[in-house]
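ok so i was messing around last nite and threw this chain in just to see what happens. nothing serious, just curious
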Amino acid sequence: MYYDPEIFKIQSNNIVPKKGRILIAEPFLPGSYFNRAVILLVAHSNKGTVGFIINKQTELQVQNYIDDFPDFNSQVYMGGPVSTDSIYFIHTRGDLIPGSIQVLDNLFWGGDFEELKKMIGLGMIQSDEVRFFLGYSGWDAGQLDMEIKENSWLVSNVNGTAVMRHLNMSSWVDFVKQVGKPYNLWVNYPENPSLN
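result:
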């Protein structure tokens, strides 16, 4: 069966990108990083945009990437194709980690990494309070706006609780369903139409 991606192109829902919102990739967006990706935006300005893919887990834990990291049960996610040799993090403990940048009421980006390691070592931060990312997703000034106009991304609101849940590739469907009609059509679009 042949699927025409054009029939799944739906005009933007007119929600603008900003810090604390998510991008949901349209079902036909190619590439290993962005195919069915959900991206949390942690910075958006006229200088550019930074975000992390929140639904693509790696098989390894954070201590597999950082030698002196305390034993900690926390999977690392593929954050995006930029700086894939670096670890980034979001968390709910802005009260404990100096230098944290608030993204949502109860969600923060970054901060003092050494302090984070210390707090984890002392058992003061639990695995459900922090998410680690290998690399990040970035756009130059105006680039993301152009991709949204081309209908590559759907912008949606999100809360910190949803971001910090255990997310995986199938979570893309959940986020699409939350946006509602007419995007429910996306859910039925096969991930690889050539296999049908």
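not much to say yet. The two ends are 5 Å apart (CA to CA).
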